[in-house]
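User: Can you recover a sequence for this backbone? Please restate the input before giving your answer.

Assistant: Of course. Working from this structure:
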């Protein structure tokens, strides 16, 4: 296995301790492990023979932008955005064992299972000033801290399979029906949409469908977390911290990708 990496970064500082950085990060992998299957190569094997070869490759490119600045003595902020693209023909060492005569390593070169095209994260920290001039009120309201983390990213890719068909011991992908949208609205489906079953059809027996590997972009993720903290000074060297955390503060639903089983032109059970 062979890996090559590249990194190029530029950073500019401004007044007020603020800074912007722009980075390119890339990596190329060659001769990576990929498992293939040979269906009963001779009479000594009752099933498929699994063959691990070094015929997989990967490429990763990303552009990373970061802005950081203490906006004031009480408020600090950090912002990160990454555009990236990860491509390979095997995202892990253990994949469905399909013969290269059926699905070549080159044909399956597509977005990685973990490919995220857009990723954004931000963090804010706010020190809350004590309220009023009354000693009791100031004692109750001082040393409070608010922290928030915001995360948003695009979805992971996936493709459909036809569980009712067999291809060298595994399930093939369906054929694509041209002119049909991949996603359609469905009010009772998670996220309000489903993969359009009319956009696909079962392939001919013993054939791999025309749908490409990981050609459908799945559901993204958005989450806002909030924490509140109070520091109680007991001695000069001893403090007591009270902290409460709220994860997914806005109760925003985040869905995993569907199983992607194609069962027919009108069946959305697993889509």
């Amino acid at each position: 296995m062979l890996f090559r990496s590249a990194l190029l970064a530029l950073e500019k500082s401004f007044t007020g301790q603020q800074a912007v950085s722009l980075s390119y990060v890339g990596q190329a992998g060659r001769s990576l492990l990929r498992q293939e299957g040979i269906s009963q190569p001779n009479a000594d094997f009752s099933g498929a023979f699994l063959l691990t070869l070094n015929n997989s490759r990967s490429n990763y490119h990303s552009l990373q932008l970061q802005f950081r600045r203490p906006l004031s003595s009480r408020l600090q902020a950090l912002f990160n955005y990454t555009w990236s693209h990860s491509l390979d023909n095997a995202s892990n060492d253990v994949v469905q064992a399909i013969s290269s005569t059926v699905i070549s390593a080159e044909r399956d070169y597509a977005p990685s299972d973990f490919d995220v095209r857009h990723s954004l994260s931000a963090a804010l920290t706010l020190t809350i000033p004590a309220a009023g001039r009354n000693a009791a009120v100031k004692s109750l309201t001082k040393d409070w801290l608010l922290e928030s983390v915001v995360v948003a990213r695009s979805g992971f890719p996936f493709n459909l399979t036809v569980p009712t068909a067999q291809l060298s011991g595994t399930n093939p992908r369906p054929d694509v029906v041209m002119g049909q949208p991949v996603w359609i609205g469905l009010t009772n489906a998670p996220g309000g949409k489903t993969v359009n079953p009319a956009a696909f059809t079962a392939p001919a027996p013993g054939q791999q469908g025309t749908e490409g590997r990981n050609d459908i972009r799945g559901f993204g993720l958005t989450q806002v977390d909030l924490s509140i903290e109070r520091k109680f000074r007991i001695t000069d060297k001893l403090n007591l911290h009270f902290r409460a955390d709220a994860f997914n503060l806005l109760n925003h639903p985040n869905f995993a990708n569907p199983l992607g089983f194609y069962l027919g032109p009108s069946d959305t059970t697993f889509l």
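That completes the design. The first strand starts at residue 2 and ends at 13.
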